[in-house]
Amino acid sequence: MTAAADKVTTGQKMMRGTGGAYDYLVIARRGDIALGIKPNSIMNGKAFGHPGTVWFGTRLRSASAQGMFEEVEESKVVKLEKKPENFWDAWPNVVWELQDNMRASTTIGVLLRGSLDGTRTEAEALLAEMKDGKLSSKMADYLYEIIGPEHMILSPAEIAKWLTENVYGKVAGQIEKSLKAKMIVEKEMEANIGHFGMQAAILKKAYEEVQAESEDPDAADDLDEEEFDDDPDDHD
Predict the structure, then answer these.
(1) Which residues sit opposite 61 in a β-bridge?
(2) Distance CA 98, CA 106 (A)
(3) N or C, which end of the chain is more exposed by having fewer CB within 10 Å?
(4) Strand, coil or helix: 61
């Protein structure tokens, strides 16, 4: 194992998962072993016994770094530590779910208070934990804590930026649109309190108002807690 190899950085790199897609962002390296992350689930916290929360899960995958990095000439390498014997021992602070000769993988995540499809108050609580890259930054800091800064090839800011641009920023944006839609519907319903009317007509008017304020044709659609869960049984 080499200190020089650990520090080689040639830009953002993606790791291929078991399914064949290059969908893991490589964040760390120890010699010929790389560590990647892939946000893969957003689900109702009631599955964990905590209704009123949302679970954000991310897979960690430790696998061969072959072909990902520029080769370092042996004469320029300073050997400082023993090479890990397998993919899981490379990251001793991680508790792994799956271990074999192809990779080691596990899930990290966090429960946040709020809901994607609950009340406006619940959606606002969730958005407060996600907007401005807050969730992404917390995850980046946690990864640095369990992996160790000496092995990271991306800075906390770079990891947070990728998470925000590719996953959590998009979720936060949809929550904001959903909140706007809820407020408009509530306004229309309040205006009709005490008066008979057709529900479809009231909702149609609210929908048209939402559409008028947004170029996104899906702005009025409700968020589904499973919408961003590409595969809850994903065990790459």
Answers:
(1) 36, 105
(2) 7
(3) N
(4) strand
